[in-house]
Amino acid sequence: MSETLLKTPLHALHLELGARMVPFAGYDMPVQYPLGVLKEHLHTREQAGLFDVSHMGQIILHGANAAKALESLVPVDIIDLPVGMQRYAMFTDAQGGILDDLMVANLGDDKLFLVVNAACKAQDLAHLQAQIGNACDVQPLFEGRALLALQGPAAARVLARLAPEVANMTFMQLRGVKLLGEDCFVSRSGYTGEDGYEISVPAGAAEALARRLLAEPEVQPIGLGARDSLRLEAGLCLYGHDMNGETTPVEASLLWAVSKVRRADGQRAGGFPGAEAIFTQQRDGVARKRVGLLPQERTPVREGADIVDANDKLVGKVCSGGFGPTLGAPVAMGYIDSEHAAIDTALFAVVRGKKVALKVSKMPFVAQRYYRG
Questions:
Q1: Dist CA 73 CA 280 (whole Å)
Q2: Which of 81-115 are b and which e, b meaning 16 or more Cβ less than 10 Å from the residue's Cβ?
Q3: Per residue in 99-142, pLDDT tens?
Q4: Given a cut of 80, is residue 2 above it in pLDDT?
Q5: Residue 1, pLDDT above cutoff 80
Q6: Which uninterrupted H or E stretch holds 151?
Q7: Residue 254's pLDDT is what?
Q8: Which of 45, 171, 230, 278 has its CA 20 to 30 A from that of 368?
Q9: Residue 3 has pLDDT above 80, yes or no
Q10: What is the pTM of this model?
Q11: Phi, psi for residue 237 in degrees, rounded to 5
Q12: Do 24 and 18 meet the contact criterion of CB atoms below 8 Å apart?
């Protein structure tokens, strides 16, 4: 028997809009709408796309020691995170492996707001409760709230029609905002490389808000297919594909996300799981790392494809790949032996027994357009 898929508060709306639904992280989710993945992707880059990301896990940490407690689980500066700001973080294990990546915002009043990945939310909640549940209150919002993402260059113009104050927010700011009379958390952030917002809204009010946003001429509904191609062009990791418990932040090229104050020479060095392993890798280097890859022909290179050098020696594996509609060409990311990881190194992916030429590329593949004021 297949397990019953969970539904987000927008499930009926997706069906009404003609979405093609697929199982994803235990939920029945829209992969595309009648517009199609290619046009949905380009529309988000040119105007504004509305994404249902209610499958993600929302969690509140509450208590005077919440920031200090969370710092014991992530290599990120949480104690000095200003009120109204959000930061990217990772849960690490004793070996420095990445258990999940997440967003952390300081709501003020000793409250932190976390957004974790859908597939990991049960284990993340258990991890938080087991490790820091005695130091602060860990409150899951899995049932009571939905999460919408409004992404693209027109997103600010659109959302400001409902709440003018959002226009003044800058990248990674978060604030409480009333939308259609409902108390929402709105952050100026997203997963597309574009300017935009993520909106945490009470579940019962999600459909009305989605319909109101979709009524704006710039906005189209966007499915998981375009969400994946947009994040891939932006060089952004997908947990479980581009990083996991077997990869460290150094190998995943995410060292930028280890706050300076938490590094080996920082004021609050270490104090998180796997700190010594990560510091050792930072000092001595790693055997492999995540890089961008540009196929040199039209053949898309997919996750799992082997990467070889000119002598057919295995040097890596593709972790994400597909077509980049903005570039009009295939793009990929992969883990490569460090000696082959320099920009412009020529390599090959093995696709159905055929070698496809690749070039190691800088990322992002498409310039990020976050609004920094």
A1: 19
A2: beebbbbbbbbbeeebbbbbbbbbbbbeeebbbbb
A3: 999 999 999 999 999 999 999 999 999 999 999 999 999 999 99
A4: no
A5: no
A6: strand 145-151
A7: 98
A8: 278
A9: no
A10: 0.97
A11: -75, 145
A12: no
Cα separation of the two ends of the chain:
52
∠ CA 11-17-18, rounded to 5°: 95
Do 86 and 104 contact (CB within 8 A), yes or no? yes
Element (H, E) at 258: none
Rounded CA separation 259/238 (Å): 21
Give the tokens for residue 361: 């590329």
∠ Cα 105 106 108 (to 5°): 150
Structure tokens at 110: 């000793």
* Mean pLDDT to the nearest integer, 346-352: 97
Yes or no: say if 68 and 80 are a contact pair by the CB < 8 Å rule: no
> Average of pLDDT values for 352-371?
97
pLDDT one-digit tens code per residue, 231-288: 999 999 999 999 999 999 999 999 999 999 999 999 999 999 999 999 999 999 999 9
Q: How many CB atoms lie within 10 A of CB 310?
A: 9
Token pair of 30, please?
A: 């829209």
DSSP 325-372: TTTTEEEEEEEEEGGG-STT-EEEEEETTEEEEEEEE-S-SS------
Take residue 78 and report the two structure tokens written for it: 């949480």
CA distances from 303 to 53, 131, 235, 299 (A): 23, 34, 15, 13
DSSP 180: T
Q: Is the peptide bond before 330 cis (omega within 30 degrees of 0)?
A: no
